[in-house]
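Issue 218. Parser rejects a valid record. Input:
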Amino acid sequence: MSDPGMHVADAVTTGTVVEAGSADRSIGQLVALATAEMSALVHDEIALAKAEVRQDVKRGVTGGAAGAIAAVFALFALPVLSFAAAYGIHNLGLGLAWSFLIVGVAFLLIAGLLAGLALMKFKKVKPPEKSIASAKQTAAVLQNVKPHPREVGEGSKPVARSTV
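Output the parser choked on:
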């Protein structure tokens, strides 16, 4: 036993016309079925986009954590450790100014390495390619759908349509 709604979904995804399983359906039922199928399609597209974004968010969190660690080293540890290291180098016989310069450059190198790690992680974050491709495919199929021409009877007049 097959689901009649699946025929409509197949028609939307492939762009082919599929006849309904039952000829005695009213236009209201067919419109309701088409609306339900389009709603399901949109919900599936959103679910796919969420899944792809969730995967890239994990990569972004890793890169963000590395960047945060680099910032913590640069802002909090740098002054305390640089004074200790500079005075330690000065005790070895080098001038105090040179000692502070060496320590400052060392901390900048560490911060640069961590920032480079963060940048590498951020570059791996990609747009949701599958969702974009699926949405483009759906839009292409829906652009090819044409309304069924209505026959004008003897007593009926054509309806004036606005151009807005």
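Fixed in the parser; the record now loads. Residues 27-91 form the longest helix (65 residues).
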